[in-house]
Each structure stands twice: as C-alpha cells, then as structure tokens.
Amino acid sequence: MDLQTLLQQFVNALSLGSLYALLAIGYTMVYGVLRLINFAHGDVFMIGGYLAFYGVSLFAMPWWLAACLAVALTTLFGVGLERAAYRPLRDSPRISIMISAIGASFLIENLGIVLFDARPKAFAVPGPFAANHVIGGLHVAAVSLIIPVVTTVLLAILLWIVYRTKTGMAMRAVSTDIEAARLMAIDVDRIVSITFAIGSALAAIGGILWALKYPRLEPLMGIMPGLKCFIAAVVGGIGSIAGAVLGGLLLGVIELMTVAVLPGLTGYKDAFAFILLIAVLLVRPAGLLGKNQGEKV
Asked: Residue 295: inside a domain, yes or no?
C-alpha cells in the first residue's frame, strides 16, 4: 500500500473515530454522574438521524433547521427517558436500573420498526457535505473534514460547562457523592436531567453526522455504533471525558487502518472493537485514563 492511500484511510479513520468519541462522551457522562450504563444511548442516536430525515423529507425544512429541531427533540426525548425509565429506580438495586436500561433500548428499537418502517431509507446529503476536496493529492469528502471539527468544538463547549460553570461543578459533586450533594442543597434531579440532556444532544448530533457520512437509515442502526462507543468509553476509562475521546479515536483508527493494511479482514472489522476491549482490560482494568474506584454497594 502506498503512502497516499494510507493517509487517505487515516483521514477516514479520524472522521470515524470522532463520531465514536461524540457518542462515547454521552455514555461516560451518564456513568460519571449516576454510575449507570445507558444502554438506550445508541437508540437515541438513531432517533436523531430519523428526526432530521423526516424534517427534510416530510416537512421540506432546510437541512440546518431540520438538524437543529432534531437535536432539540432528541434532547427532550432523552430527558423524558431518564424521568420515565431511570428516575423511579434510582434508589433501587443497581441491577434493576440496568435491566430498565436494556428494556428501554429494546422498546425504542421495536417502536422504531413500527413507526419508521424496517426498510432502510436514504438520507439526502446536503451539497456542502457531499462535496469532495483534493488536498495534497488526497480526495477527501467534506463531511470527513467537518466531523472532527464539530467534535472538537462540542468537546471544548462541554469541557467549559463541566469545569467552568456552577452546573458543571454540581455535576462533579453529584459524580463524587450523590448523597453528600443532596446534603449540600444541590438539586440532584435537575443535574441528572441536564446530564441526560447534554448526552442526548451529543447523540443526536452524532446520529445526524453518521447519516451524512453513511446515508442509510434503519431502526436498528444504533446497535453496533452504540456497542462500539460503549467499548470506546470503557477502553478510555468510563467516567472520563478525555478517556471517551481517546477511546473513540483509538477505536476508529484501529478499525479502519487494520482493514486498510489487511483488506482480507474487512469482514471482521466489527470484531476489532471487542479485541481492543479485551486487550486493554487485561492490562488496564480501569481503562487507559480511568482510575480504580471501589464499587459502592
């Protein structure tokens, strides 16, 4: 393989890794605050893509308006999901809330089949995202350049919220000790809702960007990306925003670059995520940037 092809694949890998990072951040934020794995996060990602699709195809909205509305509605959906499926079980045994998360995931997927139809739909890619650019001999799709930029901007905004605002301070307090946060007059329910709102918004943006890069929508489209992004969060150190970004980028690069170097393994590319997970956990059980913490009973 020549150097130009290798660089071409690396650009694609960076774009895919940025998408994984965007979704992994949602997993790691919810876990950091509630110690909950939101297994429905990948399905929230799917809803964002579908809402943008229907905004354009059914209501003839400009794509940017459809995208903004899809993010807003998906954010509200994520907050509603927390209130309906997770909040009533917050003081129950942890296994109960995990089962609720798995049940919510299956419910959303099957509702998606009923409401959106099981047949795949083609997502119309707007002109600015469909363009191709030649940079130093590399043919790069505009969307592959836009995705890392959007991810970087959103990450910067998120870090500012978490480390420079009172809401972020409250999030970190709830993450450290939820009971102590209540005693300090922090509205835990509000902070958890905000956390789910941010995570759902990032998932919706990720779903729209995924549909722009891979313009094919189906109700089960969030399953494999959701699993991979959960793996990315665990590999990076679940609970760590920086770890989620690192895990997502690492997973994207390993997945595509391995296929580029060894094309015979293309049919096994989804297995690379699980191999990476096992390899990292054998060496660093808490993840690359995670810290070992005692489990609360």
From this structure: no
Q: Average pLDDT of the chain?
A: 90
Report the alpha-carbon distance of residue 272 to residue 277 in Å, rounded.
9
Q: What's the average model confidence in pLDDT over 271-276?
A: 88
Strand partners, 133: 140
Rounded CA separation 170/77 (Å): 23
> Is residue 264 a part of any domain in this protein?
no
Looking at residue 263, what is its pLDDT? 82
pLDDT in tens, 96-107: 988 999 999 999
> pLDDT digits over 110-120, tens only?
999 999 999 99
CB neighbours (10 Å) of residue 226?
Answer: 25
242, 29 contact by CB (below 8 A): no
Identify whether 193 is part of a domain: yes
Helix (H) or strand (E) holding 286: none
Tell me whether residue 188 is exposed, middle or buried, using C-beta atoms within 10 angstroms of its C-beta: 0 to 12, 13 to 18, 19 or more: middle
Backbone angles phi and psi of 140, in degrees to 5: -120, 125
Show the domain range for 31. Answer: 23-222
- 118: DSSP letter: S
Helices (H), 60-187: 63-81, 94-116, 127-130, 142-164, 166-176, 178-183
Q: How far apart are CA 27 and CA 238, in angstroms?
A: 8
Q: What is the pLDDT of residues 249-268, one digit of tens each?
A: 999 999 888 888 888 888 88
> How many domains does one find in the chain?
1
Q: Which segments of the chain are extended strands (E)?
A: 121-122, 132-135, 138-141, 216-217
Overall size of the chain counted in residues: 297
Q: Is residue 47 part of a domain?
A: yes
